[in-house]
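Hello Y.,

Per our agreement to keep a running log of every chain we model this quarter, I'm adding this entry. I've kept the format consistent with earlier entries: sequence first, then predicted structure.
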Amino acid sequence: MENSGTIFFSKISERERLIRGILNDVYTALSEKGYNPISQLVGYVMSGDPTYITNHNGARSKITRIERDEIVEELFNVYISSEMKNKGPKS
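Predicted structure for the entry above:
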C-alpha cells in the first residue's frame, strides 16, 4: 500500500494532557531520587499505596490527583497506539 501523504492528527484531551504531564513529572522526580520509576509506578498502581511515590518536587501530591485506572488507561492507549503505528497496515 502506498503512502498517500495524508497526515493523521489525534486530538489529545485536556485530561489526557494532564495525566501525561503528571506521569512525566513523577517519572522525573523518581529518577532524580535514584528510584526505578517503572517499579515504583507499578507498585503504586497495583497497591494504591502513595508511599511508592517520592514527595520530591510534589510528585506524590501530583499522582494522587488522578485515578489509578486513568493511569492504566493512558498507558494502554499510548502503548497500543505506538504498536499499531509501528506495525503499519498489513499487506
